[in-house]
Amino acid sequence: MWPILLLILSGLSVFLGSPATDYEAAIRTYRENKLDSARFHVDRAIAHYQAEGKTDSIVLSRVQKALIIWEVEGLDAAFRSMDSTLKMAEQLPVRHAGRVAAYSRMGQLHMYRHEFRSAVDFFYHAENAIAQQKDPHTVALYNHMAVMSLMQEDYPSARRHIDRAYALNMEVEGPDGATMPMILQTRFFISRYSEDFKQALQDGEEYQRVTRL
């Protein structure tokens, strides 16, 4: 199961604008597995936001960069990157998307180390930091929580979390949004490993539909 689950990584929505264009490009090229391009764009976005003193945007960009570091340099390097990002996130208001994203990413990293208690703690802090439900970082959080429950073979909890992610993302992005393939992939594995084969077939067909768009 675990090699397959490692394919399920966090995704974020696309935001347009400048310098948000680089942030958007970093997300898009990461999803396309163009890691050199993703790192170039995210570094440029961070430099822009640092010049403008936008702590929240720096945090969100660095949370995205942690995924790239994870892929290129490994999990330990991603943890080191997130340590400083987390300190920056905790300068933000108690309820803020930047905190949600940072805590959620730390939980995800602990999850893939099988440090589930630490992951639960960070997911708890992330939920408590939610300022508004209709946010892509909240969607990603619930997806991470679903994956962790799946890894622990707690299928009812996994289903509950992924259903929340799916319903919320329908409001945030709609059925054809960029984050939907990640959610549908998680749903498929939950259905498959819980031996709900009829639902797995439906999830697989929907996953194929959105990835062909």
Topology diagram in text:
Elements: H1 2-5, H2 20-31, H3 35-52, H4 55-73, H5 75-89, H6 97-112, H7 116-128, H8 136-151, H9 155-172, H10 180-193, H11 197-211
Helix pairs in contact: 2-3, 2-4, 3-4, 4-5, 4-6, 5-6, 6-7, 6-8, 7-8, 8-9, 8-10, 9-10, 10-11
How would you sum up this structure, described in words?
The chain is mainly alpha-helical and 213 residues long. Helices cover 75% and strands 0% of the residues. The protein has 11 helices and no strands. The longest helix has 19 residues. The chain starts with a helix and ends with a helix. About 4% of the residues have low confidence.
Radius of gyration: 16 Å
Estimate the strand proportion: under 5%
Helix count?
Answer: 11
Order of helices and strands: HHHHHHHHHHH
Total number of strands: 0
Helix content: over 70%
Q: In oligomeric terms, what are we looking at?
A: single chain
Give the biggest sheet: none
Q: Termini, distance in Å? A: 27 Å
**Secondary-structure content class:** mainly alpha
What average pLDDT do the residues reach? Answer: 91
Spans of 5+ residues with little confidence (pLDDT < 50)?
Answer: 9-17
* Shape verdict: globular
Précis, in short:
The chain is 75% helix and 0% strand. It has helices at 2-5, 20-31, 35-52, 55-73, 75-89, 97-112, 116-128, 136-151, 155-172, 180-193, 197-211.
Task: For this entry, give a set of tags.
about 210 residues, mainly alpha, 11 helices, about 75% helix, about 0% strand, globular
